Amino acid sequence: MARATFNGTVIAESDQTVVLEGNDYFPPDSLNTDFVRESTNTSFCPHKGTASYYDVVVDGKTAEGAVWYYPAVNGDYAKDIEGHYAFWNGVTVEA
User: Fold this and answer.
1) How far apart are CA 56 and CA 45, in angstroms?
2) Are 1 and 92 in contact (CB under 8 A)?
3) Considering the entire predicted model, what is its pTM?
4) DSSP letters along 2-57, please?
């Protein structure tokens, strides 16, 4: 079971993550949306496409852009992570 936590709170948990390039990508239904808010940030990867971001907010503490996901993946390289969530920037992932 993989778990993503921030400030002592579980943000996502699943036994069906997809590991790609050293990151656990959590399925869409595993994200606790009570603790995320949309970010206007995006980034681009030539292999995966454009990533969108969420900030994580727990008990007044914020991890900006700590969740990223690819709403539509370019090509077949990373098709398994389309719509899945990965974490960084203060969010701890334990597999």
Assistant:
1) 22
2) no
3) 0.95
4) EEEEETTEEEEEES--EEETTEEEBPGGGB-GGGEEEEEEEEEETTTEEEEEEEEE
